[in-house]
Fold each of these.
Amino acid sequence: MKQFNKMVVLLTIVSLLGATTVAFAEDNAFRDTFQSAFYGGAVGALVGAALMAFAYKPADHLDYMGYGAAVGVLAGTVYGVAKTARSLAYIENGKLKLGMPTIIPDLVESPTSRQMNVSWRTDILRGTFN
C-alpha cells in the first residue's frame, strides 16, 4: 500500500510540474470600449439621479437619469476608443489605419540632479510585421 501511495504522489507531482500553460496578453479593443461605455452610462445615470434631488419635484424630472446615462455612454465610448488606440498610425493586415494616440506619463530620474521629472510619451507607429 505504501508503494501505491508513493507512486500516486510521484505521478501527481510529475503531472503538475510537467503541465505547461500558455499565457496570452489580452488585447480586446471592443470589450474595453464596451465596458467603458457601460460604466460611463451607469455613472451618468447615478449622477442624473443625484441631480434629481435638487429639483423642486423630483418625480417630475426622471428624465435627468436618462440624460445622464446618455451623456455617460457617449463619454465612456470616447474614453474607451481613446484608451484602446495606442498609436497615431498602425498597420493591420497590410492596411494603414489612423487612431488617437495614447499619451502616457512616465517618471524619469535625471542622472545629474537626481530629481524625478515627469515625461510624456506616445507611440507614433505600431504594427505587426511578418
Amino acid sequence: MTLTDVLAPERIRIRISVSNKVELLDALLDILVEQHLVLDREAARNAIFEREEKLSTGIGHGIALPHAKTNAVPLTTASLVTCAEAVEYDALDSNPVDIAILLLGPPADVRTHLQLLGKISRMICTDSSVEQFRHAVLDAETAEEAYRALHQLSTATTGA
C-alpha cells in the first residue's frame, strides 16, 4: 500500500491560506469531512489534537505528517495541503510547515497506519529525496498534478 492508495486528487488542496497550526489541521480534516469519509468530525478532531499534544508531527523540512487512529473513520484515508505561506507548527527542526499530510485510520487497522507512515517516511528519508518530494508537491499547479507526482514518488520508493 502506498500513500496514493489512500489519497485522491479531490483530497488535495494547493496553496491554501491558513495562519496557524490549528487552522491547518482543521483544513486537512475538513477535506475528509467534505468527502464524507469521516463519521464524526469532533471525534476525529479530538484524536488528531490528542496525538499532536504527545509530540509534534512536524517532521522537518517544512513537512507535517499529522496522524491519528480513531473510530471516526471506517477506513484509512488521507488528505494533503500545501500552504500559500508556511505556518509555525512546533516542528522538530523548528522550521515552519508548508506541506501537510493528514493520515486517519481506524484503531483496528494499526498495520496499515504504520505501514503508510513508514512508506511516507522512506519517501523523504534523505536530503535528496526530501527535496525531490518538496519540489514535486510545491511545484504542482493542481491537485491532479500533485497526485500524479506523489504517485510516481510512491511507486519509485516502494518498487510497486
Amino acid sequence: MFKLSTKGRYAVRAMYEIAKAYPQGVTLDEISEKQKISRVYLAQILNRLRQARLIRSSRGPGGGYVLRRPPEEINLYDILEPLEGPLCIASCIDPAEGCDEVDECVAYPIWKKLANYIECILKNVKLGDLIKNMNPEEKEHYAENVTLRCF
C-alpha cells in the first residue's frame, strides 16, 4: 500500500517549525526538540530541503534555518517531492518506467486519477495554512475544503 516515508513526514514537521519562525530563523536544536526528531536524521532532511532551495541555512550565533519564500508560497508537494521523488502509486504512471500495456489496462485510468488527486491535494496545502492556529473542528473543515478543490 502507498505509504509516506518517515523522512517525508519529518520534513513536513521541520518545515512547519521553520515556517512558524518566518521571517526569522530557527535552529536545528529547536526543531529537533519541538518535533522530537533525532538531530542527525533531521540534519540530513534539512540538507535535502536546502539543496531543493526551500530553505537557507546560516552558521554561528543567531544562525539557523529560514524559508527562502513566504509560507504561503510553499506547499506540501514542494516539500515531499525532493525527498520522496515523483508521485507514482504504480510503476505504469512513472515516466521513467512506463508500461507497454497502458492502452489495454483496465486499472491504468484509476491509478492515474488517484495519483492526480493526491498531487492536487499536496499542492493545495500551503505551509501558511498549516501554521494558522486552528481548533480540531477548523482543521477538519480545512482538510475537507482542500480535498473538495481536487474533485
Amino acid sequence: MRKDEFDKIKQHVKSDDSRFVASRSPFYQTVRMLAQYYARMNTVLKPMGIDHARWRVLSLLVEHEPITVSEIADDCVVNISTMAKTINRMVTEGFVTVRTSSADARSTEVMISDKGRALLDKTREKTAAVFQEALGGLSKTELQVLNSLSARIFENLSQ
C-alpha cells in the first residue's frame, strides 16, 4: 500500500460510524494483511514441504507442549474438526506425535517430533525474513501498540 493510500484510510476512520466502508474498516484491512502474510508464508514454506497452517501448529507446540487438539484449535481460531484433520496429517508425515491425555481421556495431546522440530528449524530463516518484511518500518512501540490493540479487539469479540 502506498503512503497516500494509507493516509486516506487514516483520515476516514471513524469509530462511531457503524456503516461498512472497506477503506475505514480495521477488520477489512486486517483480512487483507493476513491474506498477504499467509500467501507470502506459503510461498516460502512450500519448497520445504509444509504450509502456513502446519507451520503455525509446529510453532505453537514449541511454546506449549504438550497441548490438546482443542487447545490448538482455540489458539489458532480454527474449527476443532479442521484442526484434528491437520494434526492427523502431521502425524502421518511424522511432524508430531499424539497420545490420550492422562488428565482427560476424551482429549488428545499433541507433541512435536524430532522431525517436526528439525523442519521448524529449517524454516526459521525464511519465515523470519517474511516477518521482518511485513513489519518493516514499524517501531518497537508501534508493534507493541498493534499487538495490544489486536489482543483487546480479540478479547472484546471473545466475550
